[in-house]
């Protein structure tokens, strides 16, 4: 059965973790995967999470199966966070939300649903995009193409190219859009550009799918999620996948969600029934712990305020690392202007380094980033940044 099975390539992001873990270089630094580490290089356990867990343990509950769509209070908390508790879609009950296994799980459930209701469509992702977007939608059975997004020569957006591609896309095309903190480039479009994108998507009858994995890492929770209200105002159906991996530092708990904004409550009920089939036939129903932690934090005003503060601190530290990176690259002898790093937002910097340079960084210096030149600024700290900058200076 398996004699002709070929060895698959390593995952371009998580595969780097495997390589990093076996690297014996004592100076190694993992800037590959999008994970936030504190200034001591430690994965944080947020205080809001710890306190929610303590609260949960005061009245421990047995672990029965969850409903297929997850914890009701969690789904409601996600809807409130993403759309606003007082928003018309939430108040009228026209958002179908399901708990999902991380943001990736939300994307996959959405992709599977779309394949069922829109089987002949193609999917457009940004060029470049998170590597797993292409793989995930391809795996769900869609042809995947790209719309222009980043102009390497200009070190910025190719917004005209993006808009033109959307204006030419056939009706029904699924368009994957990064709601904030574009992964991998760190360049977001402006509010005015969003208006143009939304108008194009609506005029061409495309299907918008927002990936919101980094809410709170750009300018703030509300600011980063502002595009959702714009889509609501445009009156279209749209998808939003949410991840709490990064914003709650709950990577291994796989806490995410998929929300589908429908025309009315009846439609949302029918969509939810189909989403439940996708979930049931994949993994039956989600796990309890992570979802319960997030629901507890979001549902307890004091813990929610603490979460916002802790997320704000993470956002601030990343910004400081961006400034330090620019300064220290200069000090390490890098001649070219690296100031663009401070214009990028979110966890990543698209460094502009070539694949060869990234491979050298990894093999000669133990500094891991993706082959595309993406580096996770959120994994830099006051102890490893000098070494990283000196290493980069040597390969540039
Ligand atoms: C990343 O882009 O590094 C993260 O979203 C983690 C992942 O699953 O790829």
Q: What letter string, H or E per element, gives the SSE order?
A: HEHHHEHEHEEEHEHEHHEEHHHEHEEH
Task: Provide the β-strand percentage band.
Answer: 5-15%
CATH architecture call of the largest domain: 3-Layer(aba) Sandwich
Largest sheet: 7 strands, mixed
Q: How many domains comprise the coordinates?
A: 2
CATH topology-level fold name of the largest domain: Aspartate Aminotransferase, domain 2
Which class do the helix and strand fractions yield? Answer: alpha/beta
Secondary structure: helix percent: 40-55%
Straight-line N-to-C gap: 47 Å
Count of discrete alpha- or pi-helical segments spanning 4 or more residues: 15
Radius of gyration: 21 Å
Cofactor: pyridoxal 5'-phosphate
Enzyme class: transferase
Family: Belongs to the class-I pyridoxal-phosphate-dependent aminotransferase family.
Keywords: Aminotransferase, Pyridoxal phosphate, Transferase
């Amino acid at each position: 059965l398996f004699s002709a099975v070929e060895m698959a390539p390593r995952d371009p992001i998580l595969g780097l973790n495997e390589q990093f873990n076996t690297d014996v270089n004592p100076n190694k630094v993992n800037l590959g995967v999008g994970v936030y580490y504190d200034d001591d290089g430690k994965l944080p356990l947020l205080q809001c999470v710890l306190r929610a867990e303590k609260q949960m343990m005061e009245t421990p509950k047995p672990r029965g199966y969850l409903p297929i769509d997850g914890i009701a209070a969690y789904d409601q908390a996600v809807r409130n966070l993403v759309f606003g508790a007082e928003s018309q879609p939430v108040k009228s009950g026209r958002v179908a939300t399901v708990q999902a296994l991380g943001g990736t799980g939300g994307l996959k459930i959405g992709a599977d649903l779309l394949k069922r209701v829109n089987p002949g469509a193609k999917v457009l992702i940004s060029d470049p995009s998170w590597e797993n977007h292409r793989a995930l939608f391809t795996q769900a059975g869609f042809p995947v193409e790209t719309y222009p997004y980043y102009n390497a020569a200009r070190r910025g957006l190719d917004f005209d190219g993006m808009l033109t591609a959307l204006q030419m896309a056939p009706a029904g095309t699924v368009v994957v859009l990064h709601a904030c903190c574009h992964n991998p480039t760190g360049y977001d479009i402006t509010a005015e550009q969003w208006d143009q994108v939304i108008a194009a998507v609506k005029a061409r009858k495309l299907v918008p799918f927002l990936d919101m994995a980094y809410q709170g890492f750009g300018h703030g929770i509300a600011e980063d999620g502002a595009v959702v209200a714009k889509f609501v105002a445009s009156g279209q159906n749209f998808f939003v996948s949410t991840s709490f991996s990064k914003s709650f530092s709950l990577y291994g708990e796989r806490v995410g969600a998929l929300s589908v904004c429908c025309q009315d409550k009846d439609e949302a009920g029918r969509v939810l029934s189909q989403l439940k089939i996708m979930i049931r036939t994949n993994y039956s129903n989600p796990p309890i712990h992570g979802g319960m932690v997030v629901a507890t934090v979001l549902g307890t005003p004091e813990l929610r305020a603490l979460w916002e503060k802790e997320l704000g601190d993470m956002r601030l530290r990343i910004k400081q690392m961006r400034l330090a990176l620019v300064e220290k690259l200069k000090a390490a002898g890098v001649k070219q202007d690296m100031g663009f790093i401070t214009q990028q937002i979110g966890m990543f910097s698209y460094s502009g380094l070539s694949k060869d340079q990234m491979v050298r960084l990894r093999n000669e210096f133990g500094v891991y980033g993706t082959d595309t030149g993406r580096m996770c600024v959120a994994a830099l700290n006051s102890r490893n940044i000098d070494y990283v900058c000196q290493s980069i200076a040597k390969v540039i």
